[in-house]
């Protein structure tokens, strides 16, 4: 199956490695990238093919569109004339609906994907929504190679904005909390180096425990919280400042912005 990739930035490269891990022959992966240096770099690194946009579009069975939302209109206009009706287009542009794409391309099988940045280390979370006319073979192929980057779920498209607010933007929430903990540890007298190591490993270990223990986050939180102990004091401070509501408001803001981008 010949796979075309439009946009070979960091996420595009992560998808290339996923395709190869999934078993796609490198020469069956073709990129179109405006930056010649970048295209040459990826061609040398992965032994993939590089082609002009029109040829790539016209010869691909699966076409991955890894572009920014604000660039989508222009790219769709460029590829419309060369796109075969049997090609499945896979969009990674946040907020852009399947109807938006089809309105500009005419009848086109489209799969919409919301990935996240841990895809870059094989620990990503992707949510797919499948449009009209996508074959079961193409759907299974896309879900399969995305699984090589982490985990995949399928959701109704109307829930993609909620996905964006949860797993799409979620890594930034995590990184912001890590930053705050490091700053808090330094304020308590720890060096930046020690504060960073303590904080990062605490989160890595906690995530592993949550994933592998089979216990809920609630149970694990309760297990580490002794009555009137140090953890209880910290959690009481979170509760007094309404952490749950603050997080919920932040996620709602992200969801609303995703809707605006459509």
Write a structural description.
With 262 residues, this protein is α/β, with parallel strands linked by helices. It has two domains: 3-163, NAD(P)-binding Rossmann-like Domain (Rossmann fold), CATH 3.40.50.720; 170-261, ProC C-terminal domain-like fold. It has twelve helices and eight strands. It has an eight-stranded mixed sheet, sandwiched between helices. α4 links the parallel β4 (62-65) and β5 (88-91). α1 crosses α6, α7 crosses α12 and α8 (170-187) packs across α9 (192-213). The two termini are 31 Å apart. The model has no long low-confidence stretch (mean pLDDT 95).
- What is the CATH homologous superfamily assignment of the largest domain? NAD(P)-binding Rossmann-like Domain
Reported for the largest beta sheet, the result is: 8 strands, mixed
List segments where confidence is low: pLDDT < 50 over at least 5 consecutive residues. Answer: none
- The CATH level-2 architecture of the largest domain is identified as 3-Layer(aba) Sandwich
Please give the count of helices.
12
- Shape summary: elongated
Secondary-structure blueprint of this entry?
Blueprint: E1 3-6, H1 10-22, E2 29-32, H2 36-46, E3 49-50, H3 53-59, E4 62-65, H4 72-79, E5 88-91, H5 98-105, E6 110-114, E7 124-130, H6 136-147, E8 150-154, H7 160-168, H8 170-187, H9 192-213, H10 217-223, H11 230-240, H12 243-261
Helix pairs in contact: 1-6, 7-12, 8-9
């Amino acid at each position: 199956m010949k796979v075309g990739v439009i946009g070979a930035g960091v996420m595009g490269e992560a998808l290339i490695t996923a395709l190869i891990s999934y078993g796609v022959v490198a020469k069956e992966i073709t990129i179109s990238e405006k930056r010649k240096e970048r295209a040459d770099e990826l061609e040398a690194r992965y032994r993939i093919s590089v082609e002009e946009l029109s040829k790539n579009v016209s010869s691909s069975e699966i076409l991955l569109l890894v572009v920014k939302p604000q660039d989508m209109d222009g790219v769709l206009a460029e590829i419309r004339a060369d796109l075969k009706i049997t090609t499945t287009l896979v969009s990674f542009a946040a907020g852009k609906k399947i109807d938006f794409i089809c309105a500009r391309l005419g009848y086109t099988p489209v799969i919409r994907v919301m990935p996240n940045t841990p895809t870059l280390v094989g620990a990503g979370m992707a949510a797919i929504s499948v449009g009209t006319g996508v074959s079961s073979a193409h759907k299974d192929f896309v879900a399969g190679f995305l699984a090589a980057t982490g985990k995949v779920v399928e959701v109704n498209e109307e829930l993609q904005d909620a996905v964006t607010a949860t797993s799409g933007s979620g890594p930034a929430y995590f990184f912001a909390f890590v930053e705050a903990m490091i700053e808090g540890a330094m304020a308590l007298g720890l060096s930046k180096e020690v504060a960073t190591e303590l904080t990062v490993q605490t989160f890595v270990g906690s995530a592993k425990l949550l994933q592998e223990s089979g216990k809920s986050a609630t149970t694990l939180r309760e297990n580490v919280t002794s009555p009137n102990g140090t953890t209880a004091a910290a959690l009481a401070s979170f509760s007094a400042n309404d952490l749950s509501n603050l997080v919920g408001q932040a996620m709602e803001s992200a969801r609303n912005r995703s809707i605006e981008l459509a």
